[in-house]
Specification:
There is one protein chain. The protein is an alpha+beta fold. The chain is 40% helix and 19% strand. Strands 1, 5, 6, 7, 8, 9, 10, 11 and 12 form a nine-stranded mixed beta sheet that branches. A five-stranded mixed beta sheet has the order 14-13-15-16-17, sandwiched between helices. A three-stranded antiparallel beta sheet has the order 2-4-3. It binds one RNA strand through helix 3 and helix 14.
Length: 434
RNA sequence: GCGACUAUAGUUUAGUGGUAAAACAUUGGUUUGUGGUGCCAAAUUCGAGAGUUCGAUUCUCUCUAGUCGCCCCA
């Protein structure tokens, strides 16, 4: 390859969407949109560019400097490509705080940028469904988040037994940390980080490190209701109170037909601003056994933007994990994976037939059919090959005979079926099949 | 940002210190108004740069990219 040639590689860590990829992407977006709209959520968006301060105020400066795309514009302003949407939505809600109607149900599908080392399922640009419910401090809001999460996966075609929803509560964790282990804020954070990483170390290592933080008496708190430790802990009111709230949420979800929910005392989620219920959804497939997405309550976030506290719950769902899951379960419909969005290819046999073919194509378009006109005048076999390769399901050849009779043969090149009829009959046939 | 591994055609891969191969895909043809199989033919390749050598796709180094782990995961 000569040096003067441009590279065909996309920029590091980003993806190209060829038409067959775009169809899959659109399918994911469509399920997201349809599901959220069915729960009464409204879509919003914002620019991918934000002033850098928006992130430094909430996230640590180190993360912003090292893990975002940040640059200085021509007016000497520091600009960052949005690495997440939450500060943006918080800014937007805070900006119209008094005119908005609560509870406020909003969702968005932004593309986000993070300057990180790319890995499988973790690129530098990705799309993420963001769902937020503002202004409802009751557990009904937490329940709704989990209900939507479950519905989303089901709308993709997953079954209840395919995934598991793990739930916990920051209130409960905090109560255990302060009341049971009697840790201060710093110790509590340390222990939580350690618990978050428990699966990456041996049980012995974990026990040793945990004792360094919580003292010799450390013993991981058991939520087994039959254990003695449990009884003792429940005697401490703040713990009992938080646990009862959580149990109430779980019971309520089960009553609504969501049975694959489990309490997980070791669920932490490495995100400081959660204040209440937190949850994470796991794929149970043996080959894709991992976290899909999660979220929780973050009532204090808007206060960071100079606003009063506004109750908020939400979750984010990236496109990469869900795409992997759909592949694992073979849940991408054939019509999405293999077929063009074009329904029919109208083939002109010879030069004289082109005007007639154009007219037919236009009429079909009027009835809502997507039509590509082939005026290459190549041999009919080649035109069919072209349609097949593009993934177009139907062809109609137009030549002298059709121009005279006004009758066409509609051929389905996937099944080989043929159908004869006049324009309206052809249109009706296609519309009834597609 | 740190560490390990990898890089041969569009794709998946074989192979060698003497400039390379298969399958599938692609393009054209198989006598011209209906493709998919078969048959014939063609195009395209050793990631980039430097070094060792008479000679490097092969060995060494650097870079780039990818994969996997660590950090992080808002």
């Amino acid at each position: 390859m000569s040096k003067s040639q441009l590279s065909i590689e996309p920029y590091k860590g980003v993806r190209d969407f060829y038409p067959e990829d775009m169809r899959v992407q659109n399918h994911i977006f469509n399920v997201w949109r349809k599901t959220l709209q069915s729960f009464g959520y409204e879509e919003y968006d914002a620019s991918i560019l934000e002033p850098t301060e928006l992130y430094t105020s909430k996230t640590s400066e180190e993360i912003v400097n090292e893990q975002t795309y940040t640059f200085i514009d021509r007016g000497d302003r520091s600009v960052t490509l949005r690495p997440e949407l939450t500060p943006t939505v918080a800014r937007m809600v805070a900006g119209r705080k008094h005119e908005l109607a609560y509870p406020l149900r909003w969702f968005s599908i932004p593309n986000l940028f993070r300057y990180e080392r790319p890995q499988k399922g973790r690129l530098r640009e990705f799309y993420q469904l963001n769902v937020d419910l503002f202004g409802d401090a009751s557990s009904n809001a937490d329940i709704e988040m989990i209900q939507i999460s479950s519905k989303l996966l089901k709308n993709f075609g997953m079954k209840e037994e395919d995934f598991e929803i793990r739930i916990s509560s920051r209130r409960l964790i905090n109560a255990v940390m302060t009341e049971w282990y009697e840790l201060d804020e710093e110790g509590s954070k340390k222990l939580q980080k350690l618990i978050d990483k428990k699966s990456k170390m041996s049980a012995e290592d974990f026990a040793v490190k945990a004792k360094e933080i919580a003292g010799d008496a450390f013993e991981f708190f058991s939520f087994d209701p039959h254990s003695e430790v449990y009884e003792e802990a429940m005697a401490l009111l703040p713990i009992r109170d938080a646990k009862e709230e959580l149990d109430g949420i779980i019971d309520d979800l089960k009553a609504r037909g969501i049975s694959n929910i489990v309490f997980d005392a070791e669920l932490i989620r490495g995100f400081d601003y959660y204040t209440g219920t937190i949850f994470e959804v796991f794929d149970k497939h043996p080959e894709n056994n991992r976290s899909l997405f999660g979220g929780g309550r973050y009532d204090k976030l808007l206060a960071l933007f100079g606003s009063d506290e506004v109750a908020a719950t939400g979750f984010g769902m990236g496109d990469a994990p869900i795409l992997e899951t759909l592949k694992t379960y073979n849940l991408i419909p054939t019509s999405v994976a293999k077929r063009s969005t074009t329904d029919v290819s109208v083939l002109a046999i010879d030069e004289e037939s082109i005007p007639h073919a154009e007219k037919l194509a236009d009429t079909l378009r009027e009835s809502g059919i997507n039509v590509a006109l082939n005026t290459s005048l190549k041999k009919i076999g080649d035109q069919i090959k072209h349609a097949e390769k593009t993934g177009i399901q139907y062809i109609i050849a137009v030549g002298e005979n059709e121009a005279k009779s006004g009758e066409y043969t509609l051929k389905n090149i996937v099944t080989g079926e043929k159908f004869d009829g006049r324009t309206e009959e052809i249109a009706g046939r296609i519309n009834s099949q597609v």
